[in-house]
Amino acid sequence: MSNNSVLNEDVKKYELMLIVDPEIGLDSIKKRLDDVTKMITKKGKEAKGEIFFQDDWGMRDLSYSIKKRTKGYYMVFDFTCEPALIKDFDRTLRLENDVLRHMIITLPFAYEPKSLAVMMEEAAKEEALKPPREDKKGGRAPMRPAPVAAPVKKEEKAEVKVEKKAPAKKEKEEKKETSMEEVDAKLKSIIDNPDLNF
Amino acid sequence: MAKNKYNKQCPFTANGVKYIDFKDINLLRKYTSQYSKIVPRYYTGVNLKYQKALAVAIKRARFMGLLSFVRGQR
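ok -> structure tokens follow
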């Protein structure tokens, strides 16, 4: 930190991705995210960060369980700030119990932010562009559409089951209720699944 | 001798990619096997420079729960 010019060059682009615990409820998740934006943009003693892009990925399934959670609320912040501040950010996030995991990386200067929706669209376009490959590879290509098709079948099956059960077993009302709850839970999980929307 | 099995061109060199984003899961999935391992570049034809960047991106994505470390179901 000998020159002012050096100081200016020190302002780097960073990217923060964090996973918030979904168990605390949507409102508190939003609060936590607000806290994080404040943390980045707040005016410190000398410097403050500036968020130039942020992307809300929403609820996603984790590829493996983290702190016994199978889902997480994802958020991405791209910002510029003094390098010295990164340590503090990292520390405060690490001490935050509601943040399942976080990562701050340095971005190259040429980085252009892309939202998740854009990336998914591009991937869908690419898949549409090469139909002959799907035929050759057989089972490989349809991997994407398959999970969409499967739950729909499940839904139909579940409905059929309920209809069959209802007239047949009048005595076991309690069991019926539990089964209805299970079906509801299943349907909810299917509806909530963010992967199906794409 | 051909440098790689399928004589593929490196897709990153061809497009002049500057940075491989760890958030681009669809791209990264192409370079992981069904057991979620990073595919060697003699299969994919990726240049060494980009293979290294890919490895970093995949490892970051794994850490953030976007890709699995082992035996991904997707």
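Confidence is low (pLDDT under 50) at residues 1-7, 133-143, 145-151 of chain A.
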